[in-house]
Amino acid sequence: MRIVILTGAGVSAESGLGTFRDVGGVWDQYDLARVATPEGFARDRALVHAFYNERRANMRAARPNAAHHALARLQQARPGAVTLVTQNIDDLHLRAGSPEVIAMHGALDQALCAACGHRWPAPAVMGPDDPCPACGAPETRPDVVWFGEMPYHMERVDRALAGADLFVAIGTSGAVYPAAGFVAEAAAHGAGTLEINLAPSDVADAFDRHHFGPATQTVPAWVATLID
Predict the structure, then answer these.
(1) CA separation (Å) from 116 to 50, 79, 206?
(2) Structural domain total, the chain
(3) Most distant pair of Cα atoms in the chain: their distance
(4) Which of 42, 168, 184, 221 has its Cα between 20 and 30 A from that of 73?
(5) Which of 94, 118, 144 is the last residue of a domain?
(6) The Deacetylase sirtuin-type domain covers which part of the protein (predicted)?
């Protein structure tokens, strides 16, 4: 059975990483148009770098939780049969032992040169005057996908969805496209669909089955039905 899993912020929330919808959380304290769009970066690079420096420190202090570890065990138990796609920009799936993760929104621990496209491991603290190690231009930015930009690796994701027997969305709001449309795409190719979430998402009606509850409980329980 070929499984495609999409994870969102709800998977990492129990590791202490805030979601977009947290009331009073880190995302609620900022105007996302100022810190998560190309236009915001063009207006105030220092503010955007400060925001992502804080996110990077938060990520490095966090630890993978039981949901991350369960998904890593599933991938390890079924090599080549489980495609893990994440909307998250943290590295917790990899630190939990997942052999491969398609990070459609980029990665906090990577830097990108807006001038030449070079990528390299991000330092703990980045600033607007940092030169690109490849071309020297002071055009360094976090290698993350901002609102209004095209997600990464969409061709790989589309191929995986087309060949899936089961599509599972975990900890996603169903509010952000194109990811919110993956369930319909997978179902159109004949895949079964399952939502694992704290509460119904915006596209809950599109799923065949649902498991609701904290990810650290629901995800290990579901994985156990497949490999134990």
Answers:
(1) 23, 35, 41
(2) 2
(3) 52
(4) 184
(5) 144
(6) 1-228
Same domain flag for 76 and 178: yes
How many C-beta atoms surround the C-beta of residue 182 within 10 A? 27
Q: Give the DSSP per-residue string, 63-117.
A: ---HHHHHHHHHHHHSTTTEEEEES--SSHHHHHT-S--EETTEEEEEEEETTT-
Residue 24 among known ligand-binding residues: yes
Task: Confirm or deny that 136 is annotated as ligand binding.
Answer: no
* pLDDT, tens only, 170-220: 999 988 889 999 999 999 999 999 999 999 999 999 999 999 999 999 999
Q: Tell me which of 127, 144, 161 is where a domain ends.
A: 144
Same domain for 168 and 199, yes or no, is yes
Kindly report the pTM of this predicted structure: 0.93
What's the CATH number where 40 sits? 3.30.1600.10
Clarify whether residues 76 and 57 are in a common domain: no
Q: Which residues are catalytic?
A: 105
14 is in an annotated binding site: yes
Instruction: Read off the pLDDT of residues 58-113 as tens digits, 9 standing for 90 and up.
Output: 999 999 999 999 999 999 999 999 999 999 999 999 999 999 999 999 999 999 99
The partner residues of 83 in beta bridges, in order of sequence, read 4
| Same structural domain, 133 and 210 | no
Q: The domain containing residue 37 runs over which residues?
A: 20-61+108-144
